[in-house]
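Regression test attached.
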Amino acid sequence: MTPEPTATSAEPTSRWTGQAARLLALEALLLDSRRYEEWIELFTEDGLYWIPLDRGAADAGESLNIAFEGPARMRQRVARLRSGIAHAQEPPSSTVHAYSSIIVTEADDSSATVESALVVVETRFGGQTVVAARCRHRLVRDDAGAVRIAQKRVELADLEQAQPDLSFVP
Amino acid sequence: MTPTFDPARYVRPDAVHSDAYTDEEVFRLEMGRIFEAGWVYVGHETEVPEKGDYRTTFIGRQPVIFARGDDGTIRLLLNRCRHRGATVCQDLAGNSTFFRCHYHGWTYKNTGELAGVTLPDGYAACGFDVKSLALRAAPRCESYRGFVFGSLAPELEPLDEYLGPAAGYIDRFVDSASGAGVQVRRGVTHRYRFRANWKLQMENTVDGYHPGFTHRSFFDMMSDQTGKRANPYFKRGESPIRSKALRNGHAALDFGAGRSAEEFGDTFYERVRNAPGAEDIFAEFRRELGAEVAQKELNRLIATGLNVAIFPNLGLIQSQIRVIRPIAVDETEVALYPTEVVGADPRMNYLRRRAQEVFFGPAGMGGPDDVEMFRRCQVGMAAGAVGWTVLARGYDPSVEESDGSEGDFAAENAQRAQYRQWVRKMSADAGAGA
């Protein structure tokens, strides 16, 4: 599931490593700043934001998910969060997204798979929730050379357990 | 707390005292008298279709293995080794011939029978038959249309009698999408937990008053998407919904038998259309069935036209099974199981899962707003000086309200029926409780 970088992919892998780390750091910044519209712009138009409920699930559609959506639904989610009456986020959570252990596991010139550890600390009314997850980003480079997210998969460490409110964007 | 518990201190015909949601002693009695001495929903037969299949769960505070034995019979085995009390099954779900306690090696068959103890010669002189120490099973385990209920108390009316007229609503839930019934796929479950009392979720399951307010952001979202008003079914003067109290604390919001979802602005079709893959499936159905039939079929699949609450812990919400698990007076877990239509086109069941995801679950665009209201209620009810909450909508003090009452979409007669049952169960002087 997490293949070692192979010798033949070593060169593109090293080129992707810095770009991947910068993109994930930017993603964390945009989410923690609640700059959601800019966050969605990081995704390709057919991109996927996915929080599965099945550990190791390969096919989101066959099971049930905590989130399974493309930019159209993500924009609706954000518009709702902005509405002032999305009560679970009134007042909104304050979050810190921390990506670490970032490693490019597959890469060619136009795309890469990036594995990372994600810890989100979310706080609201003084309570703190820690969300721990393994993340897998599929990144693509468009013709203009810009790097976008084709898929973000967030596998929660405790996905078998009942979850606290996750209506902020983990 | 006086030695004799008086439920009337907490419930009036049209009001509930906030102590019922905040007092730890009340919670302890609820677990004993309601959850561990009466019928509670445990699981659906289709979660354990094969011999050896099991899922671990709880009846009240007590850990239970919902298991189909090698004899094909479903049992509710208390998950506790008869030797020194350790759990014998650690997994959420699986398939096993045996349940083994790894503390001292005692092993049980999946029927509960004690298959063997380690070093048995040491028990030769102690004068009891080790073989009699099977896993204890809940004394009552009965099912209706695949819905399995259990009770830790043996003396209880048959399940059919307990369900009464609510059984007809289960029938509608099971039969609405097709003649072949519904099934639950093991592990396909949203679970969430919150810091509030379990009864808030119970009331909410049949609360037609709140959607227009709690969920307005979701309906606005649907209105923006469709250009049409999304929630006339929660509007005074337009709603077709009747709020029905049933016997034994069960209740239903009945959207009307056979009503089609197209009457409501917020349709299944529209709810799922932005999910990945949905538009492709719609296009296929339109090609195969024609546009009009396709849309009707898609909408019919989700809109059972029902929200049902079976006291104390089961909800049937459109096509979803909802199960409440109280943890503490101010902590609750809820599991949501999307049902699949048996034998249906897999694309239909794909869309039913998508319909649950958009609204429900820990990051859904509806459910978390309910949970936020439960949280606010629990915090607010710490203002114990205020005392009574109000459940009076549609209440007429000149008429004694009976089980079987009906009200408009936003009547609180459903909740009043739930609390009449709460008083009956909490009044039980049978020692099973406490």
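Expected vs. actual: identical. The interface with chain A takes residues 92, 187-194, 214, 216-218, 220-221, 224-225, 274-277, 333-335, 338, 350, 353-354, 356-358, 361-365, 368-369, 371-373 of chain B (CB under 8 Å).
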